[in-house]
TrEMBL record:
UniProt keyword Metal-binding, yes or no: no
Cited Pfam families: DEAD
Organism of derivation: Zizania palustris (Northern wild rice)
Name by which UniProt lists this protein: DEAD/DEAH-box helicase domain-containing protein
Composition-biased stretches (Basic residues): 10-20, 37-46
DEAD/DEAH-box helicase domain sequence ranges: 206-317
């Protein structure tokens, strides 16, 4: 007797279920239920009770006989965003093909703008990454609470890294990055990767290259990145502590988003073509002074040359050694940077800023001294455009200086409305902004490379404020100060500031301090 269609279908389903339960094709009960529901949907044999999962009873249909469907002639409920969406779809259907395409294009534009607007603040995924690292650290040694304590520093770092035009970062908090700083840095990289993938962009691997001076530091950074694996971010540590064959096989088996390595091992793997770093998007150099002590400056420059893209760079350096500034300049390649620090110490916030104290016995000799210093600054920054802030005691003194500055072989263009002037010569171009101490509170000095204090303030605290606020976007800045006989009371505190910052104290200041 021939079997019916229902019997054949049952037999096929029995064989299919047996195949799914056995061998490599075995799936979980949840996945099997999803597959079965999908098949029922495609065949049109959904159970009546399944409609309750997608619609709810209403006063017009208390037994849900319609399963959420509306009869013809019934009005749609007025409901804000849903109603607006239905009207927009209906208008799109009625339009001709050309207008419909234009409408679809205008609809996609706000979506892109919405995605771009999310870059104004860190996403929830960044907080998830930070919490994962905090919980892992707390489970190991009971710490981890300090990660959120450095939130202000972390948000500033995120702003620099995720901007439309990312800014390089020079951190002078200490010799190397702390665990909290590393947590914020790798979480920021995770946030950027997630946003790019959400927008459909292809993220290069490795995305982040984290250079460390030693194997111990590599292990420490790897322990911070390890909790991110459950969130889909893989990291690989490369150092001389493991065989190079083992590391080559590991790199072939996966494509890590984060690469933590010492310079020597990385260059060795690059020469063997085991890893490609030409498309790295973020480069971190942790402990620039340590690399200099190991004579690894040339290796850092070689790695920087191997990266063909224009990566966002973050460098952690000891602020006490001014010789680091030359290596940092070669790595940043005269690009705009942003200085960051987790502490408010004068030495950290004024790192690599050169302080020059000039002596001027009388007030009559002050204007010629200012001319001399400006000419010196102009010659030291040849073929460049230099921004200089000239600070005077009062508005009257500022106007007198502006009107009396006529440099040799230079053209001075005065702007009386903004108290500024421009010096043009064959050597270079200098923009000078003249301010008095009363208006300094409303002046943004972060974009100014050089400051010339013609009249020292009554308190050294005001001098420290200018010293720590200027040159925020350059590696090495300059602060010139003219010391006169009226500034004798500032000799001792000014000498203490110079000593704490590792600057040379002039002999006349030492004599005044001892007298």
């Amino acid at each position: 007797m021939a079997k019916g269609d229902d019997a054949l279908a049952r037999k096929r389903n029995k064989v299919r279920r047996k195949r799914l339960r056995s061998g490599e094709n075995a799936v979980s009960a949840r996945v099997a239920a999803v597959i079965a529901s999908k098949r029922r949907r495609k065949s049109g044999k959904r159970r009546m009770c399944e409609g309750m999962c997608f619609s709810l009873p209403t006063p017009d249909d208390p037994f849900n006989d319609r399963h959420g469907k509306k009869h013809k002639g019934e009005d749609e409920p007025t409901g804000g965003r849903d109603e607006h969406k239905r009207k927009k779809d209906w208008n799109t259907k009625k339009q001709p093909a050309g207008k419909a395409g234009a409408s679809a294009k205008s609809k996609a534009t706000p979506e892109r703008e919405k995605d771009g607007a999310e870059y104004d603040r860190p996403s929830k995924f960044l907080v998830v990454c930070l919490n994962a690292i905090r919980d892992a650290v707390a489970a190991e040694d009971g710490g981890g609470g300090g990660i959120h304590d450095t939130g202000s520093w972390g948000v500033e770092l995120w702003n620099c890294c995720s901007a439309a035009s990312p800014s390089d970062v020079l951190d002078t908090s200490g010799e190397c990055a702390t665990r909290e700083q590393t947590a914020w840095l790798v979480s920021t990289a995770c946030d950027i990767v997630a946003r790019k993938e959400k927008l459909g962009m292809v993220v290069s691997c490795p995305f982040l290259l984290y250079l460390v001076p030693s194997q111990a530091k590599a292990v420490q950074v790897r322990s911070v990145c390890k909790p991110l694996k459950s969130l889909g971010i893989h990291s690989v540590s490369l150092h001389p502590g493991a065989s190079i064959e083992h590391q080559i096989s590991g790199l072939k088996s996966c494509e890590p988003e984060f690469l933590i390595s010492t310079p020597e091992r990385l260059l060795e793997l690059v020469s063997l073509k085991a890893v490609d770093i030409s498309s790295v998007s973020m480069l971190v150099i942790d402990g620039l002074k340590c690399f200099m002590d190991l004579n690894a400056g040339d290796k850092l420059c070689s790695i920087r040359d191997a990266i063909l893209s224009n990566p966002q760079m973050t460098v952690f350096s000891d602020p006490s050694d001014r010789s680091v500034a030359a290596l940092a300049t070669s790595l940043f390649r005269a690009r705009r940077i942003t200085r960051l620090s987790t502490n408010d110490s004068v030495i950290s916030r004024s790192a690599f800023v050169i302080q020059n104290i000039h002596v001027c016995p009388s007030k009559e000799q002050k204007a010629p001294k200012v001319k001399e210093i400006l000419e010196q600054i102009l010659n030291n920054h040849a073929r460049k455009t230099t921004k200089v802030l000239l600070v005077a005691a009062s508005d009257h003194e500022a106007k007198d200086l502006s009107s009396s500055l006529k440099l040799q072989n230079c053209t001075v263009t005065d702007d009386s409305h903004s108290n500024s002037f421009t010096i043009c010569s064959s050597v270079g171009l200098m923009n000078v902004l003249v301010k008095d101490w009363e208006s300094m509170a409303m002046t943004n000095v972060e974009d100014l490379d050089t400051v010339l204090v013609a009249d020292l303030p009554p308190s050294v605290d005001e001098y420290i404020e200018i010293l720590t606020m200027a040159s925020r976007h350059v590696i090495a800045g300059e602060v010139h100060s003219i010391f006169s006989n009226a500034d004798t009371s500032l000799a001792k505190p000014l000498s203490e500031v110079l000593t704490s910052c590792g600057q040379v104290v002039p002999e006349f200041l030492k004599d005044l301090e001892s007298s």
